[in-house]
Amino acid sequence: MRRRRESGRDGDRVVWQAAAHLLGYPDEGFWERLPLVRRAAEPYFGPFLAHLARVGHGDLAAHYVETFDLRRRCCLYLTYYADGDTRRRGESLARLKVRYRACGWELCGDELPDYLPVMLEFAALEPDGAAVLRGNRAGLELLRLALRECGSPYGSVVDAVCATLPPVDEAERATVARLAGQGPPTESVGVYR
Length: 193
Known about the structure:
The chain has 193 residues and is mainly alpha-helical. It has one domain (8-180). Helix content is 67%, strand content 0%. It contains ten helices and no strands. The radius of gyration is 17 Å and the shape is globular. The N and C termini lie far apart (50 Å).
């Protein structure tokens, strides 16, 4: 049995905020903020931070695109795992937006509310923000497993996030197994065969 890391809420919030940064696209701002993230979160993300010290900026950007943009199974948009590209996903996204707005949050740019870095930042900054992570635990677990399977160093970042959450229960385990076996749902609205 895996024992949950004893860090307390403040330690969890540091993990979530740092992971929000580390799972974002490694643009110039990513590298500028990295020293602050390193100082705050080195104990939680040591392996990934060591990896960053060994790779060039272009190499990390290429790996990010290859991992998160070109592999369907490594999707950072967590409702995709359970809802696919269906109307149901639209409803899930709308519910997240309502939840964010209720806390005074408005998304900037064109980012979707189920983008894991957005969810992590919300969890880090809002009193009950962790509920969005717990509510999308199956997607988070599927992402973690896919990153582990492809050997991506980003897997250790998602592992650290999962370690802050309660253990996966039987219902979540069954959902993960079902979604892993059948993949995200599809919809063929308006398509004639």
